[in-house]
Amino acid sequence: MGSLKIENIRKSFGQVDVLKGIDLEVKDGEFVIFVGPSGCGKSTLLRVIAGLEDATSGEILIDGKKVNNTPPAKRGIAMVFQTYALYPHLSVRDNMGLGLKQAGKPAEEIKERTRVASAMLSLDDYLERRPAELSGGQRQRVAIGRAIVREPQLFLFDEPLSNLDAALRVNTRLEIARLHRQLKATMIYVTHDQVEAMTLADKIVVMNKGRIEQVGSPMELYNAPQTLFVAGFIGSPQ
Ligand code: ADP
Ligand code: MG
């Protein structure tokens, strides 16, 4: 289970209102993409959902339960960042297992979950290497593996492919689509890449200046953009 409901979420940093009343429902198992110009609040919204930032007001519900006061590690969420955020001094195996170790999981279980995740991501042969000995694409797969081993109900991806070259972006995008089908988890994914948005999403959320402009399937947004901004962003000829 991994449904999400966001009710009138606002977030201000000092005098600056970054999120200005966000309402959104994400169904269990859905793949939802957030798009919008740089600075419109996409990363802030993900961080609020993950619990890395507190909302100024509003409610966040996961599977119908309010989680505003639930610490990040207890929300059943794993987040994958653009910068991978791996520990350079740890092996791939230890990077992937660290969160489970900190949660007090037994060594055998960590080993088994790491085995399953590394097989899914074709990282079996790289488990004893350090991040510096991997390509950019492999590093990003380790970051995804570290999320998978925690068996979250909800994955949050913040522009996970933007540091990869074009060919690797396509491969990794297909891999994420496959993982979504395989794990049946809910995924929320930020990108500024229209192709990623149109191909991965069940539902696209177009954000602008701290608000949601429109929510719909890729075809709905393409065929019936409700504002010029959405039309321009999705690239409809209208
Ligand atoms: P996006 O991910 O859509 O590019 P962000 O959510 O990163 O946008 O940022 C939205 C706005 O919030 C920006 O103007 C940014 O400068 C501001 N912001 C984000 N985090 C902080 C912070 N910790 N303190 C102050 N301002 C912030
Ligand atoms: Mg961002």
Automatic annotation (TrEMBL):
Residues 4-234 form the ABC transporter domain. Its main location: membrane. One of its GO terms (cellular component) is ATP-binding cassette (ABC) transporter complex, substrate-binding subunit-containing. GO terms for molecular function: ABC-type maltose transporter activity; ATP binding; ATP hydrolysis activity. Keywords: ATP-binding, Nucleotide-binding, Transport. It is found in: Cell inner membrane. It is a peripheral membrane protein. Belongs to the ABC transporter superfamily. This is Sugar ABC transporter ATP-binding protein. The lineage of its organism: Bacteria, Pseudomonadati, Pseudomonadota, Alphaproteobacteria, Hyphomicrobiales. The chain holds residues 1 to 238 of 333 of the full protein.
